[in-house]
Each structure stands twice: as structure tokens, then as C-alpha cells.
Amino acid sequence: MFFNKFYNLLLSFWFLFFINIKIFILKKFYKKKIIFFFHPNTKLTKIHTFYLEFFFKKLNNYKVFYASKIYINKNYYIINQFFLNKIYGVDIFFSNNISDSFTANSKKIYIHHDIYDTPLVEKNKEPQLVKRLLNYDYIFIPSIKSKKLFQSLFKNNIKKPIIKVLGQYLRLTFLLKNKIKKNNKNLNNVIIAPTNFYSFPKLTMQNKIIKIIKLLIDKKINVVYRPHPSNINDKKIVTIIKRFQHNSFFNFDCSSNYINSYSSSSLMITDMSGTAYTYAMFTGNPVIFFSVNENYINKQKYNLLNFFKDRKKIGTVITNPNLIIKTINRIMNKKNFYLVNINQIKKLFLVNKNLNILSQIKI
Predict the structure, then answer these.
(1) Could you tell me which of 281, 248, 247 has the C-alpha nearest to residue 349?
(2) Domains of the chain by residue range
(3) What is the pLDDT of residues 234-265, one digit of tens each?
(4) Do 2-176 and 180-347 agree at the fold level?
């Protein structure tokens, strides 16, 4: 562990020097503008790289540098977050998870990584979240579904980031462009994809997952378990894998790109993960939201958020795991009903078909 940290630190020193030289040459002799995309959360980096690179490579007049705190692939520089303010000449700094350090004298843009207005943190942690977001000049959100959430966060701040609605969710657009055509009509595959169970401990379905998986495989329903990337190596996840790893109806998905597992399924079960809406709009399939505490949702006024208001438009909400089989049968018989609602919501994420993510900012 110590050796890895020391090695990464040495690489950071080297890349810091190399990047500054390269930026100087690109600006001085090629008149290029520079974008620096930094991934501050190492556990979540790989699930975002594939679609972000797809969009940023279209910016012909810009040179894009990608960086992370750990090795991702040959296209990524290893940079310790501490050194970011020693990188000069960058015009625009991007991140899609919140960074606390930035390249020197850059426009700072946060691209919100969630498709909907899913709660970002628990209520008592919101002041610290706002403090961190205030460091950005712009916040890009995918649709008007998220606008009220961010406006409410900054309601007590005079100076605040400019919120821009992109009219696209970059990940969804990428998935739809690369969609694998499969006939999901007779598939018997269910995805279980909960949110990070440490983010909202009072709302996580984690303690019910083993029971739900058992109920499904007892009925010979194929289960694809896809935990939140932040939890992949957690002992709670390991326990579940060990419990079911020899069962032919159980599959564990920790891939960075879920296009195959989503395309091969007919239904998703989640608690409050924003991936529910990505999944519904990508596949046209419904979602079962397993809620462990509706009273808490109402008490915290989360029920006013579009994420919770729209749950029954794309699926249904249950609170008892014993109802899971009955609910699956009922919801699958109403797939066409949910598909109409899903397609209506999807229009909000296809407003700007020829998206230029830099067209609305001043450099």
C-alpha cells in the first residue's frame, strides 16, 4: 500500500512536469485551447470514462487531458489532487464528481453524474456539499428534472455557480447510440442495482437483498446483482457473492460498462439509485423500487423530488420483499403502459440532439 502511494506520488511529479510542458507547446505553437478532465473519485472513475471520452473527442479545437489519482489506461495521467493547482494554461477544468482542487486560473465545470434529482447527500451533510460546489463556475445538469434540486441548494447564496441544462444525459445518449438489439420480451433476467448503502443508511435495501435474491432464484428467475461501484469490495457484498456464487441463476456484475447486462434483462429492482431512470430509458423496461422507509422519505421532503414523484410512472414501489414475485408478474403484464411513460420522460433528455457542451459558456 505504501509503495503504491509513493510510486503514484513520483508519477504525479513526472506528469506534472510533462503536462505543463505539453500545454505550453500546444498553446504557444498550435494555438490550442486546453480542457483538463479530472476524476477525483477512484472507485467511480472507470464507470464514466467510456462515454465521456466519446463526447469530448468531438471537440476538435481543444486538446483534452484526462487524469485520475490512479492508473486507468494509457490515455490517463496519474495526478495527485494536491498538484492540480500547479498545472497552468488550462482553459476549462471538468469533473463529474466533486473535486476540491483545480488547475490554475481555469473555468471550473461540474457535470452532474446523476440522470435525475436523486438526493446527493443526507440533509445534515448538504451545507458541506454546497461549500464544495461553490468552487465551481458552472454546473451542467442533464434536464429540467434536476434544476429545482440545485436551485434549492444555493438559495441562500448570492454568488453561486451558473446552472446550465444540457438537454442530454451523456451516458444515456452514448448507451442509446450503442444499443445492443435484443428481444427482451421473453427474457427472465432481473437486475438488482441498489445505491451506495453508506450514503443513505436509512433508505438502503441492502439488508433485504439476500432474501430478495433467494425468492427470485427459487422461482428460477435469473438474477444479475450489480452493487454500487463504491461498495464493490465491501464485506457485505462479498458475503452475498459467496452465498450465491454456485447457483446457476445468480450472476455478479462489476463491469465498468453495464450495456450488456442491461440489454439482456427485462426488469430492474433498486432502492433509490438514479440508474433506475437510465435503465428505464435505455431499455424501455420497468423498475421495481424497494422502499424500506417511506415515512422517512416524506419526513425529509424527498417525496417532493422528481426522482420519487416519478417512480410510479416507470414502475412501482413495494415495501415487503415477500411481494416481489407477485409484483414482477403484475408489472410485466403492464410493460406497455410503463413504456409510454418512459418514452415521455425520455424526450426531456433528447432535447439537444446536436449537443456542444461548451456552447453556453464564456472562456
Answers:
(1) 281
(2) 2-176, 180-347
(3) 999 999 999 999 999 999 999 988 888 999 99
(4) yes
